[in-house]
Amino acid sequence: MGRRRRRGNGSEALAMIGVAAVLAVLVVPRMTHAAEQQASTLITIGVCLLSAAAAAGALAVWHRRRARARADALVLVALRQNALSPTEFEHALAALCRRDGCTEVRVVGGAGDLGADVIARAPDGRRIVLQAKRYRHARSVGSQDVQRFGGTARTVHAADVAAVVTTARAFTAPAQAYAAKAGILLMAAKPLAAWESRTGPAPWE
């Protein structure tokens, strides 16, 4: 198979425009008048094409961001309605992170995730690692769930902020005791709802 061409971006287009300008300065003065006009026309066409490519790239980025914003809005509505699958819950947490200024937000949950479901950078640069537990509201999250996450959050994922976030109403007393010793934040259904509604803090605050 042939190698796929790498898509250009705005910076590459600007660099090529700069090259065209340098060529215009160095080459055009040494040409005859007719050749100079032809070269000038070609350079102008090239600059226009490169500018159009840069504009098209910017438009594509805008469309991707708009589509992501729509998807985030829909998944947050489903979060408020408590109508999410486990995977959708992970994406809802990622949407909350993006909404509140995080960067490098990734959903990494699945087979072989080693305890991490969402990884992001807080607005102040700290590395956030979230474990998502999509449980029934009536149940509690036990100590074993928190311990499994505690074993990898910092040693494997280098978390500055490690949190278990759940739709369950609470964490058991042993889970809370372990989390306090391990420096893991526990966020049950009520504080999660407060985060979503902006009436309570995000995990990294």
Topology:
Elements: H1 10-27, H2 33-80, H3 86-99, E1 103-107, E2 118-121, E3 127-133, E4 140-141, H4 143-150, E5 161-166, E6 170-171, H5 173-182, E7 185-187, H6 189-196
Parallel strand pairs: 3-5, 4-6, 5-7
Antiparallel strand pairs: 1-2, 2-3
Describe the structure.
This protein has a 5-stranded mixed beta sheet, sandwiched between helices. Strands 4-6 form a two-stranded parallel ribbon. The longest helix is centred in the first third of the chain and has 48 residues, at 33-80. Mean pLDDT is 82; it is low at 1-7. Helices cover 52% and strands 14% of the residues. With 205 residues, it is an alpha/beta fold. The chain has 2 domains: 10-67; 85-196, Trna Endonuclease, Chain: A, domain 1 (3-Layer(aba) Sandwich), CATH 3.40.1350.10. It comes from Nocardia panacis.
Summarize the structure.
The chain is α/β, with parallel strands linked by helices. 52% of the residues lie in helices and 14% in strands.
